[in-house]
Amino acid sequence: ISNEFSKILLGYIATIENDHLRAYLMPVVSGEHGRVVNNHAHHSHPYLLSKLCLDIGIDASAIRPLNFTASFIKALRKSSKNTMFGFGLIGIGNEKMLLKEYKAVEDSFSAHYPDAIYRPFLYANINEDGHHSKLIENAATSICASSDDAKEFISGAKLGIKARVDYYDKLLAYSVSNK
Q: Which of 97, 52, 101 has its CA nearest to residue 75?
């Protein structure tokens, strides 16, 4: 999901007509992609995830998304439908929802791996997502001019939340059935 989300986010922000909003949201893109040093984005979330896979012995190139993962990614791609809808979908349905999930992810990793292996990826996400969701929330608030805008935001947030809950339900069912 990490690599696809980075691309979706970049594409979504490019669809926003207001140049001031695009500029305001660029730290969200930068946070997901990281700075380039010596031709390499050592802190990009997709890179950190592929490094995590390597460190725990998984060949990242062999990973293929399951159907329910593809469905979740498809829902995120709907972010460009409308600026306010996208703010709700990405800001609430993705970035903000993840904040409460990180403790469980950290507990799971810490039970099986040393800190040094999972900390870079996990903490990059923890440190960025709270900031990202706040930036998106502020941007949405700054342009919310009508009840229709608010409805679009809420509609996007509901779709994002539903897609994430469906994803986790299916992930749990898959995990239980493939023990």
A: 97
pTM for the model stands at: 0.79
Per the CB < 8 A criterion, the answer to whether 136 and 27 are in contact is no
The alpha carbons of the chain give a radius of gyration, in whole angstroms, of: 17
48 CB-near residues (< 8 Å, 6+ apart): 120, 121, 124
CA distance 47 to 51: 6
Closest CA to 139 of 21, 20, 18: 21
- Alpha-carbon distance 135 to 5, whole Å? 17
Q: Which residue has the higher pLDDT, 149 or 117?
A: 149
Contact 119, 47 (CB under 8 A): no
Under DSSP, is residue 40 helix (H, G, I), strand (E, B) or coil? strand
